[in-house]
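Predict structure. Chain length: 270.
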Amino acid sequence: MFKIDLAESQRIGHLDNEPHNHDFEELLIGKSGQLEHFIDFKSQVMEAPFVSFIAQGKVHRVRPLAKDGKCDIWAIRFKSEFIADTVFQLYSTYHDKANICLKTDECFDRLNVICEIIFQEYNQLNPDLSVIRQLLSSLFTIIESERKKLNLNNDESKKIQSNTFKNFLKLLDEYFMEAKDVNFYAEKLFMSTRNLNLICQDILHQSVSEIIETRKLTEAKNLLITTDKTIAEIGYELGFNEKTYFTHAFKKKSGFTPSEYRKEMAKIIS
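Prediction complete.
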């Protein structure tokens, strides 16, 4: 855990700050200043107070900015195993709601107080990780409560309780780059393809096949932004044996061909 103050925001502003991903979860809580955040393949500038969650593996770039000469942002990084039941697990691939603008009120004050306590514990000579885990869980509980008040959840809290769906997403992250079909995932989950499709339709309004393809094409977007691999190389890596089929599937989902998308993203993140 660390703080981004005015000096740190200025230092970050002078760095080569390319879109990237990382192997941990990250929670940003802005007390003052602004945050320019490229995530979910678009850029947004938020004014504090705000909360932003960056799931493991998600391509993003942050630029903390001062406003009225102030910048104060909490940054908490942790492995998903640290609080395995976090309600933010589903943001990993399919939920376009990483950034939440909040009000300056008692609720946000509570978030700040908890961050202060976590920071103090984290900087102890022998920090108690069980204390930090409980406090971090409390942060997520309060944030989830605010999401409900802002009507951002669309009953997600109920949907996220589906262990089957969470297990499907874990399997998908493990195998999506291989040529695995719906039957493979259903068998791994000890259920019929029909029931798995019903669960996915209820939660994301997509079939299992559509979700698999969405995951592949999300990774394609990541690779187009973060690597110099050719279109054919990316398509082949993701199991599209023909470049034309990959290009057609990509354009159907995004509205751009892969090469057009790469050019558009270069304009946004340059």
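Summary: The CA atoms of residues 181 and 245 lie 17 Å apart.
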